[in-house]
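can u do me a favor
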């Protein structure tokens, strides 16, 4: 994976120069296209090939050309449903082997070419050129993967910090804006409401192969930074609340899309560790917010926390712009298919997503982006229950955040800076939970997966059953000690 070329800045540079710089393999003069994309079959030239191997390879290619194409088209009755069945059949073997192949991918040494599947209407489905194709985000080297993971984690910490960083300014906010306790609590509640609505609107766009993962980040992240500026100046309580909601809305892709970005680069065994780290970052962010703002607000006023949020989120956007590559496999293959069509002039070369997903009308795109996520979230019982439980956990966590100033200021006499230190207990708690969860994943889930294969996602929910008893216990202890 070429990090410079795959970043948003690299794509803009290619567009400005009409694709004269940061060339893809298909755009280079020495690129040798596989014969399968031309109607025949050929092998992918090995980078370690010697000159003695060349005559033998040429003879093999000539022999295969005389014998004719070996790709077999799948019979079909021509209907749209049958065509989708063909495409699914052509990809089933790769899809079913993904679980084992992704687990053992790092152990593969020999490079083998991968011939594209061909269906009965003449469509050639673009895939990876070889088992070690470096354009595949799943098998790129360690540092590109680390780059993606690091950026997702820091993005989550910054955005989640934006929710709880407001808590330290609560007493001063009520004094400056002459607001009641109930109105002041909306500064947190509306921000979290934006978190909940945003993924249903913005995150589905990242699943469109023509869009990919990066554009939603590149749209929402700068808007999150920009909105932080007027929020630091506004003196009207209504305008402040609207801006806080918009902050949560444009920061929300970190909730859903970041986990998808991690899934693009990690195999099934490693993905659980990365998601665990993402959840820990999601709790560390709100814990750091009151600490960073508490002591400063005492001196500089209740608007100061928004400047701190701008200073944290601005560099995050710059890092995204410069170093975040496109990781969506359907998007990478979608763009590869377009380059191969331009190279060969063959309109039948398509990615799987192009054959399954036709170009939607604006109304269909709106329906898919705004209605389908709501239907899935409400009509699927499993997703509905998990969503409700997750919402309950969020409610308990942020309710605890609202109660902290009431308890530790009114009863224990702490100032705003000292209240922030109370939230360090959250980092201790998630660290302890992370250690337990790591052991569970490593010694139970992943061990069983290596031995028996993938047994279903329910096995990952077992720690949540135990934790569901711990939450009310913690609330009772907090209530008794207050």
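np, heres the sequence
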């Amino acid at each position: 994976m070429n990090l410079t070329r795959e970043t948003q800045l690299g794509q803009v540079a290619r567009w400005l120069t009409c694709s004269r710089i940061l060339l893809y393999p298909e755009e280079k003069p020495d690129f040798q296209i596989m014969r399968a994309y031309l109607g025949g079959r050929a092998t992918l030239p090995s980078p370690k090939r010697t000159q003695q191997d060349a005559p033998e390879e040429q003879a093999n290619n000539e022999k295969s050309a005389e014998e004719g194409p070996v790709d077999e088209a799948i019979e079909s009755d021509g209907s749209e449903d049958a065509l989708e069945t063909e495409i699914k059949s052509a990809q089933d073997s790769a899809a079913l082997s993904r679980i084992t192949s992704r687990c053992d991918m790092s152990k593969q040494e020999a490079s083998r070419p991968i011939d594209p599947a061909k269906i009965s209407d003449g469509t050639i489905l673009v895939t990876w050129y070889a088992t070690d194709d470096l354009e595949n985000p799943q098998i790129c080297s360690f540092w590109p993967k680390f780059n993606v993971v690091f950026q997702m984690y820091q993005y989550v910490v910054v955005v989640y910090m934006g929710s709880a960083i407001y808590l330290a300014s609560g007493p001063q906010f009520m004094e400056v804006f002459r607001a009641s306790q109930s109105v002041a609590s909306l500064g947190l509640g509306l921000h979290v409401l934006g978190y909940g609505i945003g993924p249903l609107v913005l995150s589905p766009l990242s699943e469109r192969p023509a869009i990919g993962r990066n554009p939603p980040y590149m749209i929402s992240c700068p808007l999150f930074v920009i909105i932080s500026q007027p929020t630091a100046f506004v003196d009207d309580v209504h305008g402040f609340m609207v801006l806080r909601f918009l902050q949560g809305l444009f920061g929300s892709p970190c909730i859903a899309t970041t986990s998808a970005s991690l899934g693009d680069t990690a195999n099934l065994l490693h993905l659980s560790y990365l998601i665990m780290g993402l959840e820990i970052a999601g709790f560390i962010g709100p814990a750091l917010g009151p600490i960073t703002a508490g002591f400063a607000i005492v001196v500089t006023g209740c608007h100061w926390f928004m400047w701190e949020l701008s200073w944290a989120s601005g560099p995050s956007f710059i890092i995204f712009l410069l170093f975040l590559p496109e990781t969506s496999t359907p998007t990478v293959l979608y763009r590869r298919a377009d380059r191969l069509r331009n190279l060969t002039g063959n309109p039948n070369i398509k990615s799987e997503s192009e054959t399954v997903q036709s170009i939607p009308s604006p109304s269909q795109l709106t329906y898919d982006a705004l209605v389908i996520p709501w239907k899935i979230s409400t009509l699927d019982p499993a997703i509905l229950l998990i969503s409700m439980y997750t919402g309950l956990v969020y409610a308990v966590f942020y309710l605890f955040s609202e109660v902290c100033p009431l308890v530790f200021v009114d009863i224990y006499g702490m100032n705003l800076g000292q209240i922030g230190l109370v939230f360090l207990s959250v980092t201790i708690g998630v660290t302890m939970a992370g250690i337990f969860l790591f052991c569970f994943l490593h010694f139970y889930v992943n061990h069983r997966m290596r031995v028996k294969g993938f047994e279903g996602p329910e096995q990952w929910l077992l720690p949540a059953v135990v934790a569901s008893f711990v939450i009310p216990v913690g609330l009772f202890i907090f209530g008794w000690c207050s």
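Residues 268-300 form the longest helix (33 residues). hope that helps!!
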